[in-house]
């Protein structure tokens, strides 16, 4: 597709290669490996806005805070989200600055602390579904549930994780600031971890809310509000599959929103992993029917933009080619 405005939403899990690479320098190395794909898009004429997840990182902060209890005061969850925006935003700011300089390009890069409005009555507060922190075996997860009062759940066949409430994002407080920075030519990193959850009081004041917003949903909201042409969701797989993880697994190259919605309703996409990505793209396309959504691995973005990789979801698959296509 021809270049336009794109929101690229990197997953928090994508920054943690595996349990042996949880450290901050290891996460930074992953960001360094990731940013060439962003700068390639900028060189290709795209006007890019970057967002990122924080699921593993916000869970690590909560755990550090728990372990230090009695010695230092605990970190409330909304502040932990703010901490991840700072640390991951710093990783992207530094890595993007260095990659732009390496290519002889110059552009202001800004990572913006972003607040996202949620409804304090959102039913999500009754049922914590957002996986945070690292992966555990079931016995360890059950022990933390018993001893520390954690809520826990299996996460996509990859083990068990702690869960926290994840209300729907309603409004991005810093939207107009993001828009003006982007219009002025800055490369903006925003809505980290979906944004720091806040509730609006009747008098308009904001209160922090202890939750973690799904960054895919927040990125879809941002992409629609910025009139983006493309929402890219880089993650751990090159393509979305139906019957994922079974011998009948089928990788998808292109599908319409109607087909994607049908597969979602049939339960093909992992709850808390692939399902929110597909739903975020569908929400975005409802607001921007002529736009497109792309789900792929960070290393495959360039090939995907040439239609050689990734899963595209759009109303006119293949930019006019109405064939739906799957690959085994
Ligand atoms: N139907 C599916 N097709 C492809 N991957 C799926 C599917 N269902 C679940 N997944 C899993 O979801 C993962 C992406 O979710 P997750 O790791 O939570 O995202 P993030 O990169 O945003 O942290 C993939 O790497 C894959 O393991
Ligand atoms: N906040 C959020 O959705 O983070 P992940 O992408 O890391 O799950």
TrEMBL record:
| Location of the Aspartate/glutamate/uridylate kinase domain | 5-287
Keyword Metal-binding annotated: no
Annotated coiled-coil positions are none
**GO function terms (MF aspect):** kinase activity
Q: Where on the tree of life does the source sit, at the highest rank? A: Bacteria
UniProt keyword list? Kinase, Transferase
Family statement drawn from the similarity comment of this UniProt entry: Belongs to the carbamate kinase family.
Q: What is this protein called in UniProt?
A: Carbamate kinase
> Which species expresses this protein natively?
Blastococcus carthaginiensis
